[in-house]
Specification:
The chain has 6 helices and 9 strands. The chain is α+β, with helices and mostly antiparallel strands and 260 residues long.
């Protein structure tokens, strides 16, 4: 009995002991670790390949566009109605000249302006080189290069006289009034666009061709910007030789017969 009482008293003593509660401090939830994307080197050939294909597509598009614009061949029956009489001012002499003053010689005309930054100088150099090639053929008559300005407001005779010194020694530079330039440009179907007003710092958009004219002022052939100097020379020589041959044939056909 005593043992039972002692056991009960011992259990009560334990129950009276202060209870202690131990709590772990709550940790805030941590963000998931950032995953660093791994570069797969195996994909680089695909990326480079796609870049090359894209660049190829762009280059091919530009090539086709230039080819269509520059190399389109049009079948023409007969000769286009280009050219006509003109009356302008020779920058070298300051005197007026007409298209008839060049009858008896072949001329190669180009329309441009002296403040052209790149196209006109390039084309005039090409013209000079083509003429030098043609000059090497004794059977080909001498061709006179003629530069007609499309910017008469700024291209005065004195300005063109200084401008021509950088190009072929036979180069003739012509200018005139705005109406005179409009007239000759229209006769040759030359497109150009200059801003109106008093501004003196501007560029002139214009078509780019050489016009080969015959000994009577008639149009023979034109050469586009896409041709090299060698190609211009070859076509010019062939055209002139053909024209000389046709003139001789015409002269022989109209000569009176000497047969008895």
């Amino acid at each position: 009995m005593r043992r039972v009482l002692r056991a009960l008293n011992g259990s009560r003593g334990l129950s009276k002991a202060p209870r202690r509660f131990f709590c772990e401090p709550t940790k805030p939830p941590s963000a998931p670790p950032t995953k660093v994307a791994k570069v797969r080197w195996a994909n680089w050939p695909s990326v480079v390949g796609m870049g090359i294909v894209g660049a190829g597509v762009v280059l091919y598009y530009n090539y086709e566009k230039d080819r269509v614009l520059s190399d389109t061949k049009v079948t023409v029956i007969g000769k286009p109605m280009l050219g006509g009489p003109y009356d302008l001012v020779d920058a070298e002499t300051g005197q007026r000249v007409t298209s008839e003053d060049y009858h008896g010689q072949y001329t190669l005309l180009y329309f441009g302006f002296s403040k052209c930054p790149d196209i006109c100088p390039t084309e005039l150099k090409k013209m000079g080189k083509a003429l030098d090639i043609a000059d090497a053929y004794p059977s080909v008559p001498t061709v006179t290069p003629v530069f007609i300005t499309i910017d008469p407001k700024r291209d005065t005779p004195s300005r063109l006289k200084a401008y021509k010194k950088d190009y072929h020694p036979r180069l003739v530079c012509l200018t005139g009034t705005n109406d005179e330039i409009q007239k000759v440009s229209k006769a040759f179907r030359v497109y150009f666009s200059a801003p109106a007003g008093d501004d003196t710092d501007y560029l002139v958009d214009h078509s780019i061709f050489f016009y080969l004219m015959g000994t009577k002022g008639e149009f023979l052939e034109y050469f586009g910007k896409n041709l090299t100097a060698e190609e211009v020379a070859t076509k010019m020589i062939d055209t002139i030789k053909q024209d000389v041959y046709e003139q001789k044939q015409t002269q022989n056909s109209v000569q009176p017969s000497t047969a008895a």
